[in-house]
Write a structure and sequence with these properties.
Layout (H helix, E strand, L loop, with lengths): L1 H17 L15 H33 L4 H7 L1 E4 L2 E4 L1
Antiparallel strand pairs: 1-2
């Protein structure tokens, strides 16, 4: 059981060394994560732009629907009551 676990850990280490990481291991400090920070900023800016676009589109549609005529108002104005029943003209 211990031998299988050690073998697994060694295989994981080998596979992780093959991976492409979003930072440069040769750099020191915060500059080590430059690519990671740049990618994160791109994602945050894209989310803000998309959120703004959706909010603007929602605002325009809500106001456009507000100015559409109300169909129930048309029906009540054009109907007359005869003997307690609503008859449409």
């Amino acid at each position: 059981m211990i031998g299988k676990t050690k073998n697994f850990v060694n295989e994981v280490k080998v596979e992780l060394q093959k991976a492409s990481w979003p930072w440069d291991p040769k750099e020191k400090g915060i500059r080590k994560y430059k690519e990671l920070i740049d990618s994160t900023l791109v994602v945050i800016i894209a989310m803000l732009l998309l959120g703004g676009y959706v909010a603007l589109f929602d605002f325009v549609l809500v106001n456009a629907v507000h100015y559409l005529p109300d169909s129930t108002e048309y029906v009540t104005q054009s109907s007359t009551k005869i003997d307690g029943q609503a008859n449409l003209r």
